[in-house]
Write a structure and sequence with these properties.
single chain; about 280 residues; Rossmann fold; six-stranded parallel sheet; about 40% helix; about 15% strand; dTDP_dehydrorham_reduct; EC 1.1.1.133
Length: about 280
């Protein structure tokens, strides 16, 4: 099976390559290999490789910058998906986000729930979803992180070393997702012959404040931090950003779990794994 992975240098892309099955011939590309804002570049890439499967892990994820760079966000998050779907006759696995929902739900969002994005990033990701075909796989996820990546965990570790105290938003609720776990789920969906919409995040619920507190506790226990700093919960209104965030974006992952027949690892356990990997990186 010849597999084209876009966004190969990103957090998920690296996880997909590391977890790839033995029978997969991986062709991993990133921005240096293909300009996803250029339809011709995409057509040439797919034509030259002729993959059996495309896993699109590339995305414009700078949520706040997207408010002033809508054309660029749309080109990568929506138009590139359209181009991939038009040039490739085989299956596509496309990765999307909890930001396609407005955060007004009182229960975890199911794959079939109505989308109502409240940010440019969310709107462009929703548009990208609309270009998928019935046999493709759409995987929505949230709060992705991994060792060595650019993410909330590593930002918190840096700030905890630099600042005397931190203030972290406590009224945005969701769930962190460890990228290697997400990669394993994607390969599981491919192997199962799945199609349609699936959700995956780690088990459990957290606010960004909860996540930050856990990061500090686990990092202290591993010796990644030498001191404890106060972490204060604040409302979103005290931390204004250009892009609106959903207040509640927990994903209902039961459909994914039932199909794959696997358990659901709690986010704190995966956080511990990531921090041990971070420690090994030095």
């Amino acid at each position: 099976m010849k597999v084209l992975i876009t966004g190969a240098k990103g957090q998920l892309g690296r996880g997909l390559i590391a977890a790839s099955p033995d029978d997969a011939a991986i062709h991993a590309v990133d921005i240096d290999d293909c300009d996803l804002t250029n339809e011709g570049s995409i057509f040439n890439l797919v034509g030259n490789i002729a993959p059996d499967l495309i896993i699109n892990a590339a995305a414009y994820t700078a949520v706040d910058n997207a408010e002033s760079e809508e054309d660029l966000a749309a080109a990568i998050n929506a138009d590139a998906v359209k181009a991939l779907a038009s040039v490739h006759s085989g299956r596509i696995v496309h990765v999307s986000t909890d930001f396609v929902f407005d955060g007004g739900s009182s229960r975890p969002y199911r794959p079939e729930d109505k989308r109502a994005p409240i940010s440019t990033y969310g709107r462009t990701k929703a548009r990208g979803e609309d270009h998928l075909r019935p046999d493709d796989i759409l995987v929505r996820t949230s709060w992705v992180y991994t060792a060595g990546g650019q993410n909330f965990v590593r930002t918190m570790l840096r700030l905890m070393r630099e600042k005397p105290e931190l203030k972290v938003v406590a009224d945005q609720i969701g769930a962190p997702t460890w990228a290697p776990g997400l990669a394993a789920v994607i390969w599981g969906l491919v192997k199962s012959g799945a199609s349609g919409i699936y959700h995956h995040s780690d088990a459990g619920t957290a606010s960004w404040y909860d996540f930050a507190v856990a990061i500090q506790e686990e990092a202290l226990s591993l010796g990644l931090l030498s001191r404890e700093v106060p972490i204060h919960p604040i409302p979103t209104s005290d931390y204004p950003t250009p892009a609106a965030r959903p207040a509640f974006s927990l994903l209902d992952c039961r459909k994914t779990r039932e199909l794959l027949g696997d358990g659901h690892t709690h986010w704190r356990k995966n956080l511990r794994k990531m921090l041990k990997e971070e420690q090994a990186l030095g």
